Amino acid sequence: MPTFAALLDALPGQCSLCRGWGRGALCGDCRRLAAITRPRCARCAIAVPAGQPLCGACLREPPPFERTFAALDYAEPWSGLIRRFKFHGHSELASVFAGLLREAVRDAPVPDLVLPAPLSATRLRERGFNQSWELARRLGAPADAHLLLRMRDTPHQAELPLDRRAANVRGAFALEPLRLREVEGQRIAIVDDVLTSGATAAEMARTLLAGGAAGVQLWVLARTPAPAGA
After folding, report:
1. Fewer CB within 10 Å: C terminus or N terminus of the chain?
2. Residue 67: strand pairing partners
3. Phi, psi of 157 (to 5 degrees)
4. For the chain, what percent of residues have pLDDT higher than 70?
5. Structural domain count of the chain
6. What pTM was estimated for this model as a whole?
7. Would you state the pLDDT for residue 164?
8. In sequence order, which residues have a C-beta less than 8 Å from that of residue 151 and are 6 or more positions away?
9. If we measure between CA atoms, which residue out of 136, 149, 226, 124 comes closest to residue 190?
10. How many angstroms separate the CA atoms of 165 and 167, rounded?
């Protein structure tokens, strides 16, 4: 029996990205564009030269998460579409992006549990939905939106210099106190929309590891490229 998403993909319509006509939310040309892969650092998913498994930053100071899988670069044409999804209420794009992320994590180690990056209550009211949860719940793995909690609202990471982002999110996350045993010994994948400095992801990973998780990986829709000249 075809799924509802599969039926939608069979219908003609405008591509969400290029606005051309085709079948499904992304036309064939844009799907092929999304399928183009590049060598990435295994730990943080930044682009690296072919044959280089880790970037210099992860060699010098490995992050607390073991692996990162990214579907896209956070650059045009995808960054504009992601902003529409994240900041302008286009939750219908969740199925499109979840499909791209499913492809990206096809060869990832199978986690025991998938957790979305949580939003504060204030941010959730502003947006009306948690974009990371909308991705996580569509990936086909056991997902839980209430185990990892955001304890306080913080300024947007994008508004801060890179060297202040770790301090901005320090202590911002916690585990649901009545469910601590559900984390012990589990291999967990954190789902987020965009990875930039990795400060938020690292703080979430440290929170899970402190709670007894056996390991943490990141599944992100998009990875911000390194600055030009970096």
Report:
1. N
2. 217
3. -60, -35
4. 86
5. 2
6. 0.87
7. 59
8. 171, 172, 173, 174
9. 136
10. 5
CA angle 192, 32, 188 (to 5 degrees): 25
- Which range, 72-76, 196-200, 217-221, has the best average confidence (pLDDT)? 217-221
Helices 94-104 and 28-35 pack at an angle, to 10 degrees, of: 40
User: Are 80 and 194 members of one domain?
Assistant: yes
User: How many degrees, rounded to 5, is the angle at CA 120 between CA 149 and CA 81?
Assistant: 110
Residue 40, SS3 per DSSP? strand
Instruction: For residue 101, give the 3-state DSSP assignment.
Output: helix
Type of residue numbered 222: A
| Residue 89, both tokens | 């209420």
What is the extent of the structural domain holding 155?
Answer: 39-223
Q: Is residue 58 part of a domain?
A: yes
Q: Are 119 and 21 part of one and the same domain?
A: no
**DSSP per residue over 132-154, as a string?**
HHHHHTTSSS-B-SSSEEE-S--
What pLDDT was estimated at residue 31? 87
Query: Got the DSSP string for 183-229?
Result: TTT-EEEEEEEEESSSHHHHHHHHHHHHTT-SEEEEEEEEEPPPPTT
**Are both 65 and 132 inside the same structural domain?**
yes
The pLDDT of residue 6 is 47
pLDDT tens digits along 79-91: 999 999 998 888 8
Say if CB 27 and CB 20 are below 8 A apart.
yes
Is residue 20 domain-shared with residue 50, that is, in the same domain? no
